[in-house]
Specification:
The chain is α/β, with parallel strands linked by helices. The chain is built from 29 helices and 19 strands. It folds into three domains: about 250 residues, 2-enoyl-CoA Hydratase, Chain A, domain 1 (Alpha-Beta Complex), CATH 3.90.226.10; about 180 residues, Rossmann fold (3-Layer(aba) Sandwich); about 190 residues, N-(1-d-carboxylethyl)-l-norvaline Dehydrogenase, domain 2 (Orthogonal Bundle), CATH 1.10.1040.50. It has an eight-stranded mixed β-sheet, with helices on both faces.
Length: about 700
């Protein structure tokens, strides 16, 4: 045992370089220095006749250490290390298992032959984190496998299975075995002359100007707003020239990517997905969940049931009336058929998956299930009645969950004699597709039940985010606040379409009015009515336009009209009646009319979102800023390259956010209030990223 991440073993004529840097053998500084020093040492010794590099643990090198990105680079730089590998006088081979990604795959490309072990996947996922392959991937891969395949790998970021890698000449052999055993065998073959080695850098890339031009044209349509993909094409194009020039060019592009906020945003998104699992209850043993009951066969209940069935959990679906139950079963059937079409479920497993669904009208049939998820409409009295019944029906220790998206889970729990078993599991529609699961912890929830929620999220391949109880939890509470800013801008004179277009240009998949039309404007209408008596008397009413649309029966897409008109489900233009509706609403509101630029719209909308997100952190509803980011990235279509609302907030800075809020507050001091946490951050020069590190 040694604490060095890179060690040399000598076995006769063979030298093995072993990389052991858990969890994924990333090339942090010590690994980079270790590889370079090992190659130099072995060449200086001149004894070994073949060198094999292999990794300990679950995978070959999975890439550069992303945690070092954005910090000052500590030498040696990875391209230098790999040039040392390629120029080694002694042949070097790479024995790759698990996932050889990014800088890991590039280590393979720089070696003189590559041996894949069964199950290997190789990839260049750098674009997913806002950079390009920066240690020769754009130069060495095209020399081995051609420009089109390189563009495919480096732009999709996909993991290429070993068989496909072999077919494209990316690996030389695919064998079974333990990495160290294979390293010894294959190094011996190099010495015996039965395994041929060569320097990738000595090969030439076949020019393919057509592939380059077509890809550029495609990217202009699909990724105009992204920085890194375009740099990939530029760098790959350079691979037809001299190697050293290509490498220099690649490095410059890589460093340019490192400087962009997109890189910071995408890396925040990568870590957000993982950071949310770090909860106070993570050491608790989850309760075992082998069967699930779902109450309610509407869109949410059916989606939740589908999600559980796809994860191999048997589901008992309860409805109050036969027609509702039939509709639920029909929706689940359609969802599962869709999953077969999309390749998420095999034909062979379809029948068994459907057979794991037990529809029933009797709630008593939930007596033996391990987990019940209630997904009926949002009415506290109805939910209390259901939980009261579940208390008498369910076996001791069963987890009782509500899919409520706003309501007080403490109150729901109090309807039972076992509040410790009650939790909120807030799914997002469509529940079998959307990755977010808010796990709402009530006052008396047993920590083991919280851990069970997170274990379930993992099993359903969802991202569980811990939230405390408040109206709307993390996501809907913040949404309820910032969506008003969009409505206010429309009342002030912006058109709904301008608001949508400006926010879509910022990166949202859909602007708020289009989202409203898609989700159904009647949902917000019902909510506004529900909350009417709690609305502060000095609050500017945001629902004037939506209410008027709803009063006309225009709920959005499902009724063919909302903010926009839809024909065969396609938007054909703004609702022509909007002119009159806006005039009337603006007159009732009484605010002076004004023009907004697209930038004003983005600034106000994002500042409103950040303000409430900051308060959610301040109130302890979310554990850390990065939990809020995860909610928005995985449940609300927040542009991934912006990293989440609070990651984006750091690009603006607390002082500027305060300046904006105070300026907006001149018009509406009730809506625009500076969160205390921003004041503290501004005073101390802190950021939300600092809070992530502390928390
Ligand atoms: C690059 O290589 C640039 C070069 O071209 C040029 C450089 C000059 N760094 O995902 P998991 C952590 S860019 C640091 O849960 P899995 C991860 O945060 C890089 N840490 O496991 C987690 O930590 P924790 C290109 C990393 O089995 C733990 O490892 N490479 C890195 O589900 C386990 O991860 C990539 O983009 C990293 N590179 O999946 C690969 N990777 O336990 C990114 C992981 O504290 N990584 N961690 O939460 C992956 O896709 C997946 O992690 C992988 C394993 C498939 C490897």
């Amino acid at each position: 045992m040694t604490d060095q991440p890179v060690t040399i073993e000598r076995e006769g004529d063979i030298a093995l370089i072993r990389i052991d840097n858990p969890p994924v053998n990333a090339t942090g500084q010590a690994v980079r220095a270790g590889i370079k020093a090992s190659i130099e040492e072995l060449n200086a010794e001149g004894k070994a006749r073949a060198i094999a590099i292999y990794c300990a643990g679950r995978t070959f090198v999975a890439g550069a250490d992303i945690r070092e990105f954005g910090k000052p680079m500590q030498p040696p730089a990875l391209p230098d290390v790999y040039n040392t590998v390629e120029s080694s006088e002694i042949p070097v081979i790479a024995i790759m298992h698990g996932t050889a990604l990014g800088g890991g795959f590039e280590l393979g490309l720089s070696s003189h032959a590559r041996i894949g072990l069964t199950g290997l996947r190789v990839g260049l996922p750098e674009v997913n984190i806002g950079v390009i392959p920066g240690a020769s991937g754009t130069q060495r891969l095209p020399r081995l496998a051609g420009i089109p395949f390189t563009l495919d790998m480096a732009l999709s970021g996909r993991m290429v299975p070993a068989a496909e890698a072999l077919e494209h000449g990316v690996i030389d052999q695919l064998v079974d075995g333990d990495p160290r055993d294979v390293a010894l065998t294959k190094a011996q073959e190099v010495i015996d002359g039965t395994l041929v080695t060569r320097r990738t850098g000595a090969l030439e890339t076949t020019p393919d100007p057509e592939a380059i031009a077509t890809t550029r044209a495609k990217l202009e349509k699909t990724a105009a707003h992204l920085f890194a993909p375009h740099r990939v094409v530029d760098a790959v194009e350079k691979s037809t020239g001299p190697m050293d020039e290509g490498l220099k060019f690649e490095r410059a592009q890589f460093m340019a990517c490192m400087d962009t906020p997109q890189r910071a945003g995408l890396i925040n998104a990568f870590f957000a997905e993982r950071a949310v699992a770090n909860i106070p209850e993570k050491k608790e043993t989850p309760r075992e969940i082998a069967s699930v009951g779902v109450i309610g066969g509407g869109t949410m209940g059916s989606g939740i049931a589908t999600s559980c069935l796809l994860a191999g959990l048997p589901v008992t679906l309860v409805e109050v009336a036969q027609d509702g139950l039939d509709r639920g079963v029909a929706t689940i059937t359609k969802n599962l058929q869709g999953a077969v079409k999309r390749g998420k479920l095999s034909e062979a497993k379809y029948d068994a998956t459907m057979a794991a669904l037990t529809p029933t009208l009797a709630m008593e049939d939930l007596a033996e299930v391990d987990l019940v998820i209630e997904a009926v409409f949002e009415n506290m009295d109805v939910k209390k009645e259901i939980f009261g019944k579940l208390d008498t029906i369910c076996k001791p220790g069963a987890v009782l969950a509500s899919n409520t998206s706003y309501l007080n889970v403490d109150e729901i729990a109090a309807a039972t004699g076992r509040p410790q078993d009650v939790i909120g599991l807030h799914f997002f529609s469509p529940a079998h597709v959307m990755r977010l699961l808010e796990i709402v912890v009530a006052d008396k929830t047993d920590p083991a039940v919280v851990a069970t929620g997170f274990a379930l999220a993992k099993r359903l391949k969802k991202i569980g985010v811990r939230a405390e109880v408040c109206d709307g939890f993390i996501g809907n509470r913040i949404l309820a606040h910032y969506s008003k800013s969009a409505s206010y801008m429309v009342l002030d004179g912006a058109s709904p379409q301008q608001v949508d277009d400006a926010l879509e240009a910022f990166g949202f998949a859909m602007g708020p009015n289009r989202v409203g039309d898609l989700a159904g404007l009647d949902i917000g209408w019902a909510n506004r009515k529900r909350m009417a008596d709690q609305r502060p008397s000095n609050e500017r009413y945001a629902g004037l336009v939506s209410d008027a649309l709803c009063e006309n029966g225009w709920y959005g897409r499902k009724t063919g009209k909302g903010f926009y008109v839809y024909e065969d489900g396609r938007e054909t233009g703004p609702n022509p009646a909007l002119g009159d509706i806006l005039e009337d609403a603006r007159a009732k509101d009484g605010a002076p009319q004004r023009d907004y630029t697209d930038q004003d719209i983005v600034d106000r909308y994002m500042t409103a979102m950040i303000s409430e997100a900051a308060r959610v952190v301040e109130d302890g509803i979310a554990l850390r800023p990065i939990d809020v980011d995860a909610v928005f990235l995985f449940g609300y279509g927040f542009p991934r390259f912006r990293g989440g609302p609070l990651c984006y907030a750091d690009t603006i800075g607390a002082a500027e956010l305060i300046r904006r809020i105070e300026a907006y507050a001149q018009e509406d001091a009730q809506y625009w209030q500076v969160p205390e946490i921003l004041r503290r951050m501004a005073a101390e020069g802190g950021t939300f990223a600092d809070l992530n590190r502390e928390g």
